[in-house]
């Protein structure tokens, strides 16, 4: 008698043979094969296809038996069955830990059933997606029902106006599902995107004390997330992502209907319209939820054919293309070229543009919308058919990839065993056949995606004819003398050096070992580059700089294609490298920044802070918080891309110094805000939320204080960040998770994680260098301090120079309440009454110490002037301002409102502390010196200039120093 696995392909059969006895030591149990649809050969097939099915049968056989007893595996998984089965699990729930355990055991059972039926192809795509989505609905609604009732017992019941009847009634929580959950198209192993909403304002009744409705629902939401997301001994239920809510991770966890409607009406972005297309009430009060969804419909669907959506769709499409290029996603069937996301984009683009007029398009399921697009003749039947077939194939393949290990992945396997499993699941005799059909589907999808909305660079006209001489020079078909003469005629200022550098590149080991395709692209690109360089004033010098980039992208020729096909990007490249070796160096270190050159308008128009927040939110949406490595890489790319825009704008002359520092500071603030969110979420997933003295869980209670250039809104391109971490939680209390730790330990670890994310060297470099020495007691002090301890230190133990530093400090990220509390402390400390004579002596003494340690030695001051540290330099101005602030804030408390030198000078003039003409001249001199440092940074130069530079400015500063600090 042949073995049950004998009909399986050889690598799978061998694998099953090896594990069979460990999975079934006493043979296949009778209860599993009682169903006629499940002979031993099918069991072997299932065990061969999925490690998850195998491990569940091996480790949790009793639970699988209960599942089979409740419904045969040959029967479909319906919403009615799921609801009934959950009630059976719920009967054993007597507390929150038991609820967590029940949800996770329920998941294991249903996941086994859904993956079994899907991988054996007993269920089609429609059944699998519907079952996975209904299971999520059941879990969310089931957990919410139990937790709502328990929260009402503990905190009282929230009351307010019923959105349906308009009468006062208990308030429900409404859970909105986004993405594939909203569209009832969930994967077999997926995270879920949720938004929490409640009808309106009010307070709880029946508790020990009344609580604002929003606080009630925030706490309920936190408990619901923990019930689903927290990893315990039984695993987890769903990874929960809340970042699609208004204001992202920094927004309130639950918002009222009115707040949601106001946000989308006043601030809603186009990408949020795109996301809301699939939104659906998945749990909570369905009637109240429908009232909310109707109020949001006008935001999603305009009443007319919305041609204004084209521009934002172009931007989204360009972002998709850049991400594919940046991350090398060729093996990712969701995000890669021709993948699932491109099909979704095509369909949702039509929904946004025409959904207001053609109400048939106001549905959620992609396959349903495809039918409507064909019926409305918006897409040809052939295109619809190809997209439909590709979508079904790709989604089935996605489920196959995920079902093998119950793992959220869309990446094709590289090992033979898993490739054989995928081929078997997909109905092919070999991986080669499967790959061939996959490639055909992806090629067709990529073509349709490219044709739907052409991006601006795709619409560029072809490039002009090139002179043959450029080709001959690059390929060494022209003799050296002729090559030098030609380059000289074309404006190259150092043709000998340019010829030498081209020869070195051409003869380099890397170029010699390029594959045929790479060599072909390089030979196309170099003549085009040499010709483009004739448009700048210093072609030879610029060539040297650009060749750093060429060397960096020799094996990543997609970037050469980008520059070949986009004359505009090529023009920006040579112009920026001509003007700044620092920019050239940035591009060489991070070639993916070339994407920023595609759109000249955005390149020279850096976004304001709100737009930066929006951009970062979009980029990070699909990266789980727990994927710290990818979070760190994306943050580094975000920072570099936006700093490149600032540098480009400064070089072009469209941004004055003050604005340059503003933008560089905003970039840092937006990054810090996100880093706090990532680090906090990471720790909460392990230990729960820090508790407050009233028993509630805090949102963060943590804040980052910026000192120095960050605090003074004066960041430069290479500035480090002077940071101090504070919190206002009770350090004696602990967190509320399954593995609680003291609040003090929690916040210390939070600070450590933030420093790690910011300062660790990754393949993309360091995000920011961090300096924590300005915290209380410096390097010997605690990394994170309570606000009360910070205030006590500032009042009783701080040195004068620490109060000077406080003058340039401000809250830059974290909890709003904590930031406000810090600002009150700063104001009080700066407004203390001081002995001005003693203060002046201490400030002058500190300045002399700095001069002697950081300034130019007196013997060399005729040769070199250090713009910052030498007499008559920037630090003299800063010390004068800080002295005047500390000396006069007690008389003029309004001086504390600003942390930056420029506005502090203006306020000192306004208050009459200094004559206005002096403050204005000091301001102009300060800007002149700082502008020079900025420009030199873009030339990779330090802050030291010739000894006779800035004579008037230095004389004036020294005269003011004598007047303010010495006389």
From TrEMBL:
SUPFAM superfamilies attached to this UniProt entry: Nucleotidyltransferase, Nucleotidyltransferase substrate binding subunit/domain
Limits of the Glutamate-ammonia ligase adenylyltransferase repeated domain: 44-290, 571-823
Pfam families: GlnD_UR_UTase (PF08335), GlnE (PF03710)
Segments of this protein annotated with the region Adenylyl transferase: 467-967
Designated name of the protein: Bifunctional glutamine synthetase adenylyltransferase/adenylyl-removing enzyme
Top EC class for this record: transferase
Catalytic activity: [glutamine synthetase]-O(4)-(5'-adenylyl)-L-tyrosine + phosphate = [glutamine synthetase]-L-tyrosine + ADP; [glutamine synthetase]-L-tyrosine + ATP = [glutamine synthetase]-O(4)-(5'-adenylyl)-L-tyrosine + diphosphate
GO function terms (MF aspect): [glutamate-ammonia-ligase] adenylyltransferase activity; [glutamine synthetase]-adenylyl-L-tyrosine phosphorylase activity; ATP binding; ligase activity; magnesium ion binding
HAMAP family: GlnE
InterPro entries noted in UniProt: GlnE, GlnE_rpt_dom, NT_sf, PII_UdlTrfase/GS_AdlTrfase
Keywords tagged on the record: ATP-binding, Ligase, Magnesium, Multifunctional enzyme, Nucleotide-binding, Nucleotidyltransferase, Transferase
Physiological role: Involved in the regulation of glutamine synthetase GlnA, a key enzyme in the process to assimilate ammonia. When cellular nitrogen levels are high, the C-terminal adenylyl transferase (AT) inactivates GlnA by covalent transfer of an adenylyl group from ATP to specific tyrosine residue of GlnA, thus reducing its activity. Conversely, when nitrogen levels are low, the N-terminal adenylyl removase (AR) activates GlnA by removing the adenylyl group by phosphorolysis, increasing its activity.
GO cellular component, one term: cytosol
Gene that this polypeptide is encoded by: glnE
E.C. numbers: 2.7.7.89, 2.7.7.42
Domain PII-uridylyltransferase/Glutamine-synthetase adenylyltransferase: 314-452, 864-935
BP terms from Gene Ontology: regulation of glutamine family amino acid metabolic process
Domain of life: Bacteria
Cofactor field: Mg(2+)
Family (UniProt): Belongs to the GlnE family.
